[in-house]
Amino acid sequence: MKKNMALVMAAALAASCLATGCGNKAAETKADTTAETTAETGAESKEDGETAAAAGERTTLTVGFDASFPPYGYQENGEYVGFDLDLAQEVCERNGWELVKTPIDWDAKDMELNSGAIDCIWNGFTMNGREDAYTWSEPYIDNTQVFAVKKDGGITSAADLAGKTVLVQADSSALAALTDEENEEIKALADSFAELREVPDYETALLELEAGSADAVAMDEGVARDKQNKNDNITILDEEISKEQYGIGFKLGNEELRDQVWATLLEMEADGTVDTIADKYSVNKDNICISK
Question: Percent helix, strand, coil in the chain (nearest 5)?
Answer without folding.
Answer: 45, 25, 30
